[in-house]
Structures are given as structure tokens and as C-alpha cells.
């Protein structure tokens, strides 16, 4: 089965609006013809990025959204607000949201339900901590994170999902998973998805790897049969290095 390669920048809390636009000016001409790229930017840069005059092949997304539709939720941003800006996708459940901001499986199920109802493409992140991996709990953690959000949904419900496997110990540490480790984890995710959704869905879903991806380690990772692309933090902040990653 051939799946589309998807390369996503996760800028996290970096770049002012002006810096985001400078990035685009430099990055857009570097993108190979016919190549797509995805950029998840801070909320404050989204309007400018969405209306930036680049080719249609750069998709702009948010890094989070509320699980609520509207109401008394100070500081939160709703899906309707993102949609009204023309935002094209959203990241849900990034490990920094889970571990620093306390997002639980229950909250993430509500976010995934909302994304499915509203038909917005979303990247759902999962991954184990170092402690969980070292104590042999990796499979159990991945199963829990995937099942709690996706169980009961059909392949049709999930036609706009992308899964991102990001081992917490590899994020921002410079210590990427080996290609074999990442491939094994991705394969295990497909096993779970085959059980809870369908075999066909498990084979067709795009699964990204994230955690210290850089131009130097990207080719070997992407060469693995279950790795369909990347969610890139640090190496996506520089236009030249992100272009190297997208133009693989
Ligand atoms: P990193 O971050 O590439 O800086 O490790 C990846 C991520 O958090 O998505």
C-alpha cells in the first residue's frame, strides 16, 4: 500500500507574525514543485499565514483547539474561530499539551469527537515517556491513548485523521528513536487500529514520526515501511532545514 508522505512543521511557541511571514517568504520558493508542506503555527500568526500569497501547497494549521464549541472558557480558541480564519488542520494531543498542560485522554476524546463532527483534518499525537518505555509499558500506553480517543469510530469518521507517534523522550532532546524503534511502534499502532477500526483503515492511515527529526536522520526514518512522514519541531524553524525535510 502506498501512502502519501506528509511533512509537518510544529513551530510551538515560536515566531511573531512578522517572523512567520519572513519564514514563508524564504521557504515558499524553496519548496519543490508539486511538493506539499504543512505548518502548525501559533494562533497569533494564523491569519497572516493563511492569507500569505504562497502556492496552494502550503497548508496552515493550529497547534491546539478547545474541546468546547463556545462559552465561558477564558483563553481558549474554538474550532469555529479557526475555521473562520481558513485554518486547514489542527494538532490534537501533542505531548506538551498532555504533559505540561494536563490534557487527559478524556479531554482528547472530546477534541477528537469535535474534529470528526466538524470535519476538520487533524493530527492526533501519541507517545510514551522514557519511564514507560523502560518499564515495558510502551504498548499499553499507545493502546490506551489510541483506544480512548478512537474506539467506536469508523474508517469513514476518521478519513481526515493523521496519527503522529512521538516518543516523549525523543522530543526536543536531539535523541531521535532509531528507525527500527519508530517503525516497530508504528506497526504496533496499525495493529491496534486494525482491531478497533478496520484492517483497511490501519493500512491506509498516514502515521508520522516526531522527535528530533532533522535533515541528517530523515532519509533513513522515512525509508521504514510504516513511517509516512514527520512532525518536526526544532528543525522546522529554519526555512532551509525545513525545505530539506520537505523536499526529501
Ligand atoms: P522536535 O519536536 O522535532 O523539536 O523534537 C517534535 C514535536 O514536538 O513535534
How would a textbook summarize the main sheet? 8 strands, parallel, barrel
Oligomeric state as shown: single chain
Number of helices: 11
Distinct small molecules bound, one entry per kind: 2-phosphoglycolic acid
Strand content: 5-15%
Reading the helices and strands in chain order gives EHEHEHEHHEHHEHHEHEH
Average predicted local confidence, pLDDT: 97
What level of helicity do the residues show? 40-55%
Structural class: alpha/beta
Shape: globular
Give unreliable regions as ranges: none
Radius of gyration, in Å, reads 17 Å
Could you give the count of β-strands? 8
Strand order, sheet with most strands: 1-2-3-4-5-6-7-8
Measured between the Cα atoms of the first and last residue, the distance is 20 Å
Which secondary structure elements does this structure contain, and how are they paired or packed?
Layout: E1 6-10, H1 17-27, E2 37-41, H2 46-50, E3 58-62, H3 79-85, E4 89-92, H4 95-99, H5 105-118, E5 122-126, H6 130-134, H7 138-150, E6 161-165, H8 179-196, H9 199-204, E7 207-210, H10 215-222, E8 229-232, H11 239-246
Parallel strand pairs: 1-2, 1-8, 2-3, 3-4, 4-5, 5-6, 6-7, 7-8
Helix pairs in contact: 1-11, 5-7, 7-8
The structure holds 2-phosphoglycolic acid.
